Amino acid sequence: MAFSNKNGNDEEQIVSDINMTPLIDIMLVLLIIFMVSSSAAIESGLDVDLPEMNAVSDKNGETLVVSLSKNGGIAVQGEEVKLEELQERIKAKLVSLKTESVILEGDAESQLDKVMTIMDTARSAGAKNFSIAARLKTAQ
């Protein structure tokens, strides 16, 4: 939109300024939406298809989440680790979270021997409480 402005010399000047306020408002709203949605997506770190159960308990408080994918990939709090680094990473995360609880989030098709290795490694790292993540079975 252009406005004409007359000064004392009868010369017309065009004033063309872009109003930045609406643009900044939209950018801030988008930033907030991305921040909220990205924090919800960080939960696991691996693509895990949880097994189904009839009753699932909800554990409150800080816990350490260790994920195991069906191809054998391991993640601690969403960060992929190698089996050789697992004990050190679990020990460090247990200390930083100030907890002794570990939730094992394993794919329904993952191998049981890998699960036992992870639980044994977590116990050696100082974990005392274990939970296995599952999703609630839907009524059919």
UniProtKB/TrEMBL annotation:
* MF terms (GO), sorted A to Z: transmembrane transporter activity
> Which InterPro entries would you find in this protein's record?
ExbD
Q: Name one GO biological process term.
A: protein transport
Where is this protein chiefly located? membrane
Membrane topology label: Single-pass membrane protein; Single-pass type II membrane protein
Which parts of the chain span the membrane according to its record?
A: 20-42
Q: Which domain of life is it from?
A: Bacteria
Family as reported in the entry's similarity comment: Belongs to the ExbD/TolR family.
**Name of this chain's protein:** Biopolymer transporter ExbD
The organism of origin for this protein: Peredibacter starrii
Classification from the root reads: Bacteria, Pseudomonadati, Bdellovibrionota, Bacteriovoracia, Bacteriovoracales
